[in-house]
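Dear support,

I submitted the protein below through the web form. The confirmation email said the job was done, but the results page showed an empty box. After a refresh the structure appeared. I'm attaching both so you can tell me whether what I see now is the final result or a partial one.
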Amino acid sequence: MLFNIRFYIIFVLIPVLLSACSRDNYLDRILQNQELIVATRNSATTYYEDRDGPSGFEFEMASAYANSLGVKPRFVKTDSLTEMLRMFKDGEVDLVASGITRTDERAALYRFSEPYQEVQQQVVCRRGGKRPRDVSELEGVELAIPANSSYEERLKELQKEYPTIRWHANPLISTENLLIQVWQKKLDCTIADSNIVDINRRYYPELVVRFNISKPQPLAWVMPAEAASLNESVDDWLEMYRESKQLDSLHEKYYGFIEVFDFVDMRAFQRRIKSRLPKYKKLFKQAAEIYKFDWRLLAALSYQESHWRSKARSPTGVRGIMMLTLTTSKELGVTSRLDAKQSIFGGARYLSQMRRRLPESIQEPDRDWMTLAAYNVGMGHVHDARSLAKNLDKDPDLWRDLETVLPLLSQKKYYKKLKYGYARGYEPVIYVRRIRDYQDILVKMFPNG
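What the results page shows now:
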């Protein structure tokens, strides 16, 4: 009998007690406080204020996780990675959602979630400035990076092979601010993750990627080493988030419009924002208010159509700042397509008509992207593409699915079965991407509308 009691204590109770003692209370505390405190930074890839409030890839994803827990998210923002990690160590935040690269050195100190994106570290300089072609040519280059960053870890690894390379690690500055310093010619070069470069090079087109210094690396959320319960919860949620395609939709929303970088186009766009847009900005705002659009979307559409030239004309007969056809302008009551006010208001009205013809099941922002596609290729072809999407087991209400289907409208095996037949289906895909690109830049330059 005594043996049986000892056996029960050793093999049954002790593991249970140890498990109870070792269980952390991170997740329980979050649920009890009804609040998830998230450290992040102000940037185009993480968190920023839009006209409708907070926005950003990390903001949306962290908010979705908090919502799954039934708690409110609270974001603590800082531009310094050093300060972010200090708050983290001092227990001021529950997790860091700020596009943090998982590295071996960091993994030894913290817990990381499953990755949700991959990036590469890139050496970025200014056009006309330093032109290092590889690591061996970084000697003599004035190079600065954020302190405690994955870039610093990588440079320390490279320094073992190239002992002459030097850099300045600044604990008080962000990657984005260093990119601006390079653009302003205050600094030769910096290092940034490829997703940060892709976004910011459109605002500062003279930035040039010289070469990559790393293989693809995972981005993940960071949690305390003791926070096993929170880590498990985050990973379970991420798996569901990925399987439900919501992660794909988020990537599409924030990165789906970025094409291969066009330096000449971006430079011209930046110049025309200063030289041409002021003349028409008030009209875009007035039309947007009447027809319930973001004025920056109307301006971006107009730039794609005419580069903000009120007398623009194409060989196909479309004219004006919104490039209306003669038939459409008559239907809209536009008496002069070359009159900027009539053209902008007519184009906004036409765009509104296109939007109303879409099913209510299509939500924003996909509704705007499909409306733009209809403005370009016609609503009939958009309806055809949606029908084809259903036949191909894709979601006709999601733009990321529709943009894979539209190019198929130029293939006979598909278009011969569709009501409106052949269409150059890749054109609206490029068209929408470019407008989204222009709009994103305008949002950056006019964040409060």
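Response: this is the final, complete result; the empty box was a page-load delay. The chain is about 50% helix and 15% strand.
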